[in-house]
Structure formats: C-alpha cells, structure tokens
Amino acid sequence: MDKIIIEGGVPLKGTIEVSGAKNAALPIIAAALLTEEKCIIKNVPNLRDVVTMIKILRSLGVKAQMEQDCVTVEAKRCNQFVADYKLVSTMRASICVLGPLLAKQKQARVSMPGGCVIGQRPVDLHIKGLRALGAQLKIEHGYIVAAAKVLHGNNIFLGGAYGSSVLATANVMTAAVLAKGRTLIENAACEPEVVDLANFLIKMGAKIKGHGTPIIEIEGVKRLGGASHSIIPDRIEAGTHILAAAITGGALTIKKARVDHLSAMLDKLKEVGVSVVAEQNALHVKRKGSVLKPVDITTLPYPGFPTDMQAQMMAMATVSDGISVLTEKIFPDRFMHVSELNRMGASVFLEGASAIVKGVKRLSGAPVMASDLRASAALILAGLVAKGKTEVSRIYHLDRGYERIEEKLIKVGAKIKRVKE
Ligand code: EPZ
Prior knowledge:
Blueprint: E1 2-7, E2 13-17, H1 22-31, E3 38-42, H2 48-59, E4 63-67, E5 70-74, E6 82-83, H3 85-88, H4 98-105, E7 107-111, H5 124-132, E8 136-140, E9 143-147, E10 155-157, H6 166-176, E11 182-186, H7 192-203, E12 207-209, E13 215-219, E14 228-230, H8 235-248, E15 251-255, H9 263-272, E16 274-279, E17 282-287, E18 296-298, H10 310-317, E19 323-327, H11 337-343, E20 347-351, E21 354-358, E22 367-369, H12 373-385, E23 389-393, H13 396-399, H14 405-411, E24 415-420
Parallel strand pairs: 2-15, 3-14, 6-7, 10-11, 18-19, 22-23
Antiparallel strand pairs: 1-23, 1-24, 3-5, 4-5, 7-9, 8-9, 11-13, 12-13, 15-17, 16-17, 19-21, 20-21
Bound molecules: ligand EPZ.
Ligand EPZ binds at residues 23, 26, 92-93, 120-126, 160-162, 165-168, 189, 193, 307-308, 330-331, 373-374, 401.
C-alpha cells in the first residue's frame, strides 16, 4: 500500500490543470450501455473508480477500454445484467448501471452498494423513481433486482430527508430516456455532473429539458445512438487546488476550472480573505493578507456549498484566525477527518452535525490515516501547511478521486512524495 509524505510550509506557486470530473464520468460511462453503437468519452480522469466502472461494463459483456483520457464503450454484446458484489462493493457509483440496464436489457441485478465511512447511503430514492416508471424492484440476497417489460413515463417527486439525490436523478433519467411517454422529475439534483450526463444523453438522441433545474422533463425515444462527449472539469479538484494555494499562502493559476460551477466556494473564499480572479479558462488564486479569516459553511445540494469540499474547507479553517462552524446537511456523519486533523494539532470538536473549529497558529506534521476520498484531500492540505513531516497512509482513497495529485503538487513546489508502505 502506498503512503504520501509531505514536508509542510512551502507556499505553492505556479500552474495546475484540473482533470475531468470523476462524478460526471462515472454515470456517463454507464449511460453508454443505452446504445449498441460506439460512444467516445473524452477528458476522463485516470482514476481507480473509472477503472472499476470499465471492469463492471466488461463483466456485462461490453467492449470498454481506456486510452489516455479517452474511454470507448461499445455495448453491442451486452448480454449480462448482473453487477457483481465484488466490484460494486468497492465503489458506490456502480449503482449508475441500474437505470441503463433496466431501460436497455429490461432487467438488472445490481449488488447493494452498502454504507460507507461518510455515513448511511440509502437507495430508496433510486427504487422509488424506477418503480414510478413501472419497474418491479426488490432487494434480494444483497442485490437490487429490477425488471420491467416496458417502462412508462411518469411524474416523480425525487426528494428525501436530505433533499435531492445526484445518482438517483441519474438513474431515473437514464431509464426514462427510453421509456414510453413523458417523465417529469421534480426535486431533481441540479449538480453540474447531472447536467453533463443530460448533455451526453441528448447527444445520443434523448429528449431532455430542464436539466440543471429542479424539474427535468424527458420525452422517451425508441432508441439512442452513439455519441462523442468531453467530460466537464472536476469542480471538487479545482476547489481543492484553490484551497492548496490559500492554505499555504501561495499563488496558483488553476487551468480548466469552471468558475460557474464554483460559486458557493468562491463566495466563502471572499469572506476568508482569498482572492480568486477568473480569466478565460483559468483562475488566479492568492491569499489577500497574512491571515485567513474564519468561515461558517453549511453543505447543501448544488448550487449550495458542496459536501465534497467540507473536509478540505475544514483543513483550512484549522489554521484560520478565529472560530469557524461547518455544518453537514447532506451526510451528517461525514466527519472522519476530524480526529486525524486533531492529531496534527487542530482544535475541532463535533456538536451533532456541526464541527466547531478553533483556528490554531500552526499545525504540526504527524502520521495520519485517510478514511475516505475527501478526508484524504483534507489531510494533504493540512500536511502542506503543517510544520514538519506528515505521513498520510491508506492513500488508495485518494487515488479514487484525484488524478496524479502528487505530480501536480510537486510541479508547483510542494515537498510531497509517494512511497510504498
Ligand atoms: C454523489 O453521491 C457523489 N458521488 C458524492 O461524491 C457526493 O458526495 C454526493 O453525490 C452529494 O453531492 C457520485 O456522484 C459518484 P446523493 P450520491 O444521493 O448520488 C440521501 C465524492 O467524494 N439519499 O446525492 O450517492 C443521501 O443519504 C462522493 O466524490 C437518500 O436518502 O449522493 C444523502 O443524504 C462521495 N436516499 C443525500 O440523499 C437515496 O436513495 C444526497 O446523496 C439516495 C440518497
């Protein structure tokens, strides 16, 4: 197993380029199951989760391969409908194959993804949405077993206790594109990754309107064809690099970042005292003064502050000048990074679904353990500013979501290396 070693205290300077968005690429690759024609998907990040999705497609009899940043999928011989536990258990996004398999193969057997360290991950909204289209679904021996002779469009309210759901919206949308008649998804997720999926489906011949708003309208079509598509840049990776510049007191130009996908983040960064200037396809980031001001954030569905940036924002708050409050309204238990940050000298305590962070002057490097993808990113950020050496182990979480992160950080001056444990 690899670990990352960081010698902190170097202000990062230079240019970093953002890769394609993992959370857009995964449902889009799965959606290629909806046609027998070839789909070409570009700007795909080379990540462990993408490799897992390709393996799942292959296990379904599909021709799928990745060359550099391009994934090609040809589902001509898709003759299986079972997404096996061994693959699904390593990645929750495997559930994205449920909607396309049901629509194209009329049946699907997808292993239940189970919970994970960021908390409970129910699938009731996926099931509710697909049932509303006329599918029969049951949970049997740890699998979601789905079947439908014909799918019929319907009006579906897709909201749960924590609001909209990104992947449930993706599943219902990918099933409804081949259903008979019109589907209206109300309380649909508005995340840019859902919009990117809709744009890909439209290129395949789907009739979709309203994507990016809480009401998505889909007019089912008889068949979809092949398409070529380039994945949007990863807004969470961009946000993480912005914080790397801010926390180290450096200055970074972040290329290929989409400023329109980062509004909630950028708004908070103004309060903290970080200047972000957007210019064409790049963001220029630098800290305004010598100190970072504290910040209060509440995570919410898009366009609210993303839960996938909560841990990284907390890393920054640990060294700000005052008390910050970070409240989780999407995954109330997503705080595994707190104890690790405290091992580095941070002062964070939890009060229900809120973290109270008292800023300290300096963190000190320590051996820490990554518990999940975004927690790993938070520990890297903390390591970049801490005094001395930080060793982040269980780095495989990081490899699920950040493409060549240490290479990118070395180029802008970070003292960071990957070693075998
Ligand atoms: C997506 O997960 C992302 N994953 C997550 O990214 C992200 O944290 C999350 O959306 C929220 O933005 C991918 O896109 C692959 P949800 P998803 O369904 O779709 C509740 C990362 O670090 N809910 O939008 O699975 C759920 O418990 C990750 O890259 C139900 O109640 O999340 C949560 O409270 C991790 N019933 C809320 O909805 C359901 O059936 C939003 O979750 C489904 C979800």
